[in-house]
C-alpha cells in the first residue's frame, strides 16, 4: 500500500491569496464597472532592464551556433556570474565571500524551502511571526512540527513582531538551533540595524545555532548604514547562510534566478558534536538535485553588474521606492501607523481593526486590493500590507480613493 507523507495533511490550505482572489472576483461581479487597483501581491510590474534584455538575446544567439552552443552548465552556476556576485554584492561591502561559496538557483523560494533538508529532524526552530510562509510550511512538510493549534504549529518557537518592537523580534528566551530572519522584511517592510543584527549573530554563536538570512529585498536598501548582507556583521560567516534573488532587484520573477551563500567556515554538528561543513552538504544536495540555471538567464543576470545594468536596476528600484514613499505619506497623513516603505517595497499598516474587515473596507469603498496581515501569522492580525509594485499613476489613484473613503 502506497502511503503519503502525512505531514502534508497538517498544512493549512493556502487560504490567503485564494481568499483575496475570491473576494475580488465577487466584488468585480457585483460591480463590473468599478476599476480595481491591485496593491496586494508581491510581484513586479516593470519590464526587465535593457542591459539584461541585450545579454539575454546575445546568449540565445550563442545557443543557435554550434561553435558557441552550451549544454549542461556547472550545477553551482557559471564562474562568470559567481565572480561578479562575490565582487559586487559582498567584497565591495567588506564581506569576504568568495565565488565558490555562491550557489546559483532558480529562486530564493526554492532555496529557502530546500535548505532544511540538510538539517536533522529534531532541531528547534525559531520563526518570526508575521512571516513569509515558505519557512514554516517546508518544515511542516518535513515533519518538524506537530499539528496547528490556534494558528500556530506545535513545536515551533514563534518570534513575535509587534508595534512595540518595531517588528524586530526579541532574541528567543531559550536555546534554539535554527533561526529564520528576513530583512528588509516581507510582509512588514521593517529593516534591521547592524547593531540589532549583531545581537542575533552573537546569539547564534553562543548557542551553536544557525541563522538563515533571507535578503531577497536587499536592493531596496538606500540607507547605507543598514546592512545589505548578514556577512557585513563580524563573526557571521560561521553561523549564517544568506539567500538573495534577482526577482525584485531586476524584475526576474518570471525569468527565475537567485542564489544562496554558504561560507566554507559555516558549520553545524553531528549528534555526537563533531563539526561538519555546511558548504559540503549544500554542495552535495545542490549537485544531486539541481542541474543549473539556464545559460541565457545567467548571462542576463550577469548584465545587472555592468555599469548600464547597475544604473538601470537603480532606476527600476527607485521607481517602486517612489510609489512606496507616496503610499507611506498618504496613509500616515490619514492617521494610521506605518512600518516599511523606506528601504522596502512593502508598507505595513496598523488598520486598528480586523485585517479582513479592513481589506473589505478598502475593496468596497476604494476598489483597492491590499493583503490582510492575518494571512502572515497571528501577529499580523490588525494589520494590512500594501505593496509598491504597480504604476505610479495607479498608486496615485489608489491613494486618492483611499483618502476619500477613509477621511
Ligand atoms: N523571500 C521572500 C521574503 C520573498 O518575499 C520572496 C518572494 O516574494 C522570495 C523569497 C522568493 O523569491 P524568488 O522569486 O527568487 O523565488
Encode the helix/strand succession as letters.
HEHHEHEHEEEEHEEHEEEHHHEEHEEEH
Nearest-angstrom radius of gyration?
22 Å
What portion of residues belong to β-strands?
Answer: 15-25%
In whole angstroms, how far apart are the ends? 62 Å
What is the helix content?
Answer: 25-40%
Q: What strand line-up does the widest sheet have? A: 2-10-9-8-7-3-6
Low-pLDDT parts are: none
Number of strands: 17
Number of helices: 12
- Ligand set: pyridoxal-5'-phosphate
Descriptive overview:
It is built from twelve helices and 17 strands. The protein has 407 residues and is α/β, with parallel strands linked by helices. Strands 2-10-9-8-7-3-6 form a seven-stranded mixed β-sheet, with helices on both faces. Helix 2 runs antiparallel to helix 9 (295-302), helix 4 (108-114) packs parallel to helix 5 and helix 10 runs parallel beside helix 12 (392-406). The chain is globular, with a radius of gyration of 22 Å. The model has no long low-confidence stretch (mean pLDDT 96). The structure holds pyridoxal-5'-phosphate (PLP). Residues 42, 107-109, 112, 132, 182, 186, 214, 216, 245, 247, 253, 258 line the site of pyridoxal-5'-phosphate.
Amino acid at each position: 500500500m502506497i502511503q503519503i507523507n502525512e505531514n502534508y495533511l497538517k498544512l493549512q490550505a493556502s487560504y490567503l491569496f485564494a481568499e483575496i482572489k475570491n473576494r475580488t472576483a465577487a466584488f468585480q461581479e457585483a460591480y463590473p464597472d468599478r476599476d480595481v487597483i491591485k496593491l496586494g501581491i508581491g510581484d513586479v510590474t516593470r519590464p526587465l532592464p535593457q542591459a539584461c534584455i541585450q545579454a539575454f538575446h546575445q546568449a540565445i544567439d550563442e545557443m543557435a551556433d554550434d561553435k558557441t552552443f552550451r549544454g549542461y552548465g556547472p550545477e553551482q552556476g557559471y564562474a562568470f556570474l559567481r565572480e561578479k556576485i562575490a565582487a559586487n554584492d559582498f567584497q565591495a561591502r567588506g564581506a569576504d565571500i568568495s565565488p565558490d561559496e555562491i550557489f546559483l538557483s532558480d529562486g530564493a523560494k526554492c532555496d529557502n524551502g530546500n535548505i532544511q533538508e540538510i538539517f536533522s529532524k529534531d532541531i528547534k526552530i525559531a520563526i518570526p511571526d508575521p512571516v513569509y510562509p515558505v519557512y514554516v510550511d517546508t518544515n511542516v512538510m518535513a515533519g518538524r512540527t506537530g499539528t496547528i493549534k490556534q494558528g500556530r504549529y506545535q513545536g515551533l518557537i514563534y518570534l513575535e513582531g509587534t508595534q512595540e518592537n518595531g517588528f524586530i523580534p526579541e532574541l528567543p528566551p531559550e536555546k534554539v538551533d535554527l533561526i529564520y530572519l528576513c530583512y528588509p522584511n516581507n510582509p512588514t517592510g521593517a529593516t534591521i540595524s547592524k547593531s540589532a543584527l549583531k545581537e542575533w549573530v552573537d546569539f547564534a554563536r553562543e548557542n551553536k545555532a544557525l541563522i538563515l538570512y533571507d535578503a531577497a529585498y536587499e536592493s531596496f536598501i538606500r540607507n547605507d548604514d543598514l546592512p545589505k548582507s548578514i556577512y557585513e556583521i563580524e563573526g557571521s560567516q560561521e553561523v549564517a547562510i544568506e539567500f538573495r534573488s534577482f526577482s525584485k532587484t531586476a524584475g526576474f520573477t518570471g525569468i527565475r534566478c537567485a542564489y544562496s551563500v554558504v561560507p566554507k567556515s559555516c558549520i553545524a554538528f553531528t549528534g555526537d558534536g563533531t563539526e561538519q561543513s555546511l558548504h559540503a552538504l549544500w554542495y552535495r544536495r545542490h549537485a544531486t538535485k539541481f542541474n543549473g540555471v539556464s545559460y541565457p538567464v545567467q548571462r542576463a543576470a550577469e548584465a545587472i553588474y555592468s555599469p548600464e545594468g547597475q544604473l538601470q536596476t537603480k532606476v527600476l528600484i527607485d521607481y517602486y521606492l517612489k510609489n512606496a514613499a507616496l503610499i507611506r505619506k498618504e496613509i500616515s497623513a490619514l492617521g494610521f501607523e506605518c512600518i516599511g516603505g523606506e528601504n522596502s517595497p512593502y508598507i505595513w499598516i496598523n488598520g486598528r481593526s480586523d485585517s479582513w474587515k479592513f481589506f473589505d473596507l478598502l475593496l468596497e469603498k476604494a476598489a483597492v486590493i491590499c493583503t490582510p496581515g492575518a494571512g502572515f501569522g497571528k501577529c499580523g492580525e490588525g494589520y494590512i500590507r500594501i505593496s509598491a509594485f504597480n504604476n505610479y499613476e495607479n498608486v496615485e489613484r489608489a491613494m486618492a480613493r483611499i483618502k476619500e473613503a477613509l477621511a
